[in-house]
Design a protein that fits this description.
By secondary structure, the chain is α+β, with helices and mostly antiparallel strands. The protein has helices at about 10, 55-60, 60-65, 115-120, 130-155, 210-220, 260-280, 280-290, 295-305, 310-320, 340-350, 400-410, 415-420, 435-445, and strands at about 20-35, 35-45, 50-55, 75-80, 90-100, 155-160, 165, 175-180, 205, 225-230, 245-255, 310, 355-360, 375-385, 385-395, 430-435. Strand 2 (about 35-45) and strand 3 form a beta hairpin. Bound molecules: 4-amino-1,4-dioxobutan-2-aminium adenosine-5'-monophosphate (4AD) and magnesium ion (MG).
């Protein structure tokens, strides 16, 4: 085969140098045709669009075409020609074809017809080859880049926090253990409990639920930092919005109060959604057409409108006074469920909402305590279709108050002695928040299940791929 430099399909579709010889490589999406000519739609992941390869059967022979079926991988030399067909400007008149790999239609699970998202989850190793998941995973990339760009342009530093940790940042106790001890026969202490002093790190360790505590150490030196990494929660939540392994972005800023924090969160979310509209429109249009025809309007609406800000207490009052029947009861002190959050956003205010000043009992130990003795300077951003997309707060900067809260919640202070020292040495007001990356991806793609916006989801009883 003649050696030509490969060009990506995204580039080839832009070319107008008709008559040129080009090389294209990709996977067959469909093949159709008649006795004289075959038409192959080829995709290489560089765009949701396929390029049409026109195969003259008198040149290649009928037998040659047989293994060119959905899923096969081809290496194609051909002449760039102006397309006669509708909806495409460029096609390739094949001169030479090499079949890199066949995909026997008797066993290849992805066929031309549409497959359900549930079925595609069972073949997570192949689903990136579908239009839907190609679009979603390209968008995941663009949004990751946009996150770094947003913070970099604002002078924030990307701060790497550990994945293995001895502390429980959220105090919720739903952590995955990390150990090299023999599960069948661990060393035991005098009480018969597992003795982690013999473990790899000389102490009990877990996968982190959040980079925040170490992020605060960064903010107390570098001024403004953000983390962007995987986090792990062993809660048995089988919902369309929870993963056991998800990615979180956590900015932390010295000298910020909770209002600055809310301003940053709102600006950040609007920036990311606008970035998606500016850079991912082909993929968004495809997903809108397939799954959610209100997607584009919803994205634009969020960018164009102010978020409503009100206190938890005011929010609970609205929920109590609504005639709405909820599955979970609402009362002051209750942890709001997604149905409550979505009622406020979708039915009552009809726009994103930031709720502040939650009861301290339902929030983490590190949040700044209000003077009322009952509430903390928390802020949760609630989104249509999602519920909570961001959780954050101003932090308790006072050593005595923080220590008191740690003791009140029954946490042990040994594993976080270093965290407490930030309040002893040069403490400062500061605030931050966490954005769940997959919750953002749910919103931007319009997908309904969080398992469909991460390549290899981790949920209870599911870690195969
Ligand atoms: O509200 P959370 O638990 O807050 C924290 O972890 C803080 N340390 C953040 C901070 O202040 N630096 O989690 C933050 C966000 C949630 O709003 C949600 O978007 C997402 O993380 N999240 C999850 N996403 C997917 N699956 C889960 N199990 C999630 N738990 C939280
Ligand atoms: Mg939260």
């Amino acid at each position: 085969m003649k050696q030509l430099k490969r060009i990506k399909i995204s580039e080839a579709l832009q070319l107008t140098s008709f008559g040129d010889e080009v090389n294209i490589k990709g996977w067959v999406r469909t093949r159709r045709g008649n006795k004289n000519v075959g038409f192959v739609a080829l995709n290489d992941g560089s765009t949701i669009k396929n390029i049409q390869i026109v195969i003259d059967i008198s040149r290649f022979g009928e037998e040659f075409l047989k293994p060119i079926t959905t899923g096969a991988c081809l290496n194609v030399n051909g002449t760039l020609v102006e397309s006669q067909g509708q909806g495409q400007s460029v096609e390739i008149q094949a001169t030479e074809i090499e079949i890199f790999g066949e995909a026997d239609p008797a066993v290849y699970p992805l066929q031309k017809k549409g497959h359900s998202l549930e079925f595609l989850r069972e073949i997570a190793h192949l689903r990136p080859r579908t239009n839907t998941f190609g679009a979603i995973f390209r968008m995941r990339h663009h949004m990751s880049y946009a996150i770094h760009k947003f913070f970099n342009d604002k002078g924030f530093y990307y701060f790497h926090t550990p994945i293995i940790t001895a502390s429980d940042a959220e105090g919720a106790g739903s952590m995955f253990g990390v150990t090299t001890l023999d599960a069948d026969n661990p060393p035991r202490d005098e009480q018969g409990k597992t003795d982690f002093s013999h473990d790899f790190f000389g102490m009990q360790t877990n996968l982190t639920v959040s980079g925040q505590l170490e992020g605060e150490l960064g903010a107390m030196a570098l001024g403004a930092i953000y983390t962007f990494g995987p986090t792990f929660r062993a809660e048995n939540s089988n919902t369309p919005r929870h993963l056991a392994e998800f990615w979180m972005i956590e900015p932390e800023v010295a000298f910020f109060d909770n209002n600055d924090n809310m301003d940053l969160a709102e600006e950040f979310l609007k920036y990311l959604i606008q970035y998606a509209l500016d850079h991912c429109m082909e993929d968004i249009e495809f997903l809108a057409k397939m799954y959610d025809n209100e997607l584009i309007d919803r994205l634009k609406f969020v960018v164009e409108n102010d978020f409503v800000r009100l206190t938890y207490t005011e929010g609970v009052k609205i929920l109590e006074e609504s005639a709405q029947k909820f599955e979970f009861p609402v009362y002051w002190g209750a942890d709001l469920q997604s149905e409550h959050e979505r009622y406020l956003v979708e039915k009552h205010f009809k726009r994103p909402v930031i709720l502040t000043d939650y009861p301290k009992e339902i929030k983490s130990f590190y949040m700044k305590q209000n003077d009322d003795g009952k509430t903390v300077r928390a802020m949760d951003v609630l989104f249509p279709k999602i519920g909570e997309i961001i959780g954050g707060s101003e932090r308790e900067a006072d050593y005595d108050k923080l220590l008191h809260r740690v003791e009140e919640t029954g946490m042990s202070k040994e594993p976080i002695w270093w965290y407490l020292e930030t309040r002893k040495f040069g403490t400062a007001p500061h605030a931050g928040f966490g954005l769940g990356f997959e919750r953002l991806m749910l919103f931007i793609t319009g997908m309904a299940n969080i398992r469909d916006v991460i390549p290899f989801p981790r949920t209870p009883n599911n870690a195969e791929f």
